[in-house]
Amino acid sequence: MQPQQDAPRSAHAVEELTTGERLVLAILNHQVVRLRYQGRDRTVEPHLLGIHEAGEPILVAYQTGGTSERGDVPGWRSFISTAVDEVELTAQHFRGARSDLNAAAQPMVEIFARA
């Protein structure tokens, strides 16, 4: 008997995931994400998800599109992941961790996923 392989995730299955689960999946698959944060639509390459030393769940991502309060897009952003809305995994992928990722700028006590 052959070992059973995991079936690929259907779009319906992804819709059932929590925001945190979608972000972990996107990080592990190097998948570009569209999300809404503080009332602004953004397109990001998610790189790191974990618990910040201040106790907040944080997403560190490279924003490539959309708008930002700071106005400088593209660029690195940190998002409180519990305040992220409408996470959509796109069909677009990024190569992996960017060389200018400074993980030390966001000290984490626990990391859930890293590109």
Summarize the structure.
Helix content is 14%, strand content 46%. The protein has 115 residues and is mainly beta.
Name of the CATH class: Mainly Beta
What's the number of helices? 2
- Give the CATH topology: SH3 type barrels
Q: Quick one: how many beta strands?
A: 6
Which spans of ≥5 residues are poorly predicted at pLDDT below 50?
1-8
Report the biggest beta sheet as strand number plus sense, adding barrel if it closes: 6 strands, antiparallel
Order of helices and strands: HHEEEEEE
How much helicity do the residues have? 10-25%
What's the CATH architecture name?
Answer: Roll
* Assembly status: single chain
Query: Roughly how many Å apart are the termini?
Result: 35 Å
Please explain how this structure is put together.
With 115 residues, this protein is mainly beta. It has one domain: SH3 type barrels, CATH 2.30.30. Helix content is 14%, strand content 46%. Strands 1, 2, 3, 4, 5 and 6 form a six-stranded antiparallel β-sheet that branches. A hairpin with a 4-residue loop joins strand 2 and strand 3 (57-66).
Can you give keywords for this protein?
115 residues; mainly beta; SH3 type barrels; 6-stranded antiparallel sheet; 6 strands; 14% helix; 46% strand; disordered N terminus
List the helices and strands and how they pair.
Blueprint: H1 11-15, H2 19-29, E1 31-37, E2 40-52, E3 57-66, E4 75-80, E5 84-93, E6 108-114
Antiparallel strand pairs: 1-2, 1-5, 2-3, 2-6, 3-4
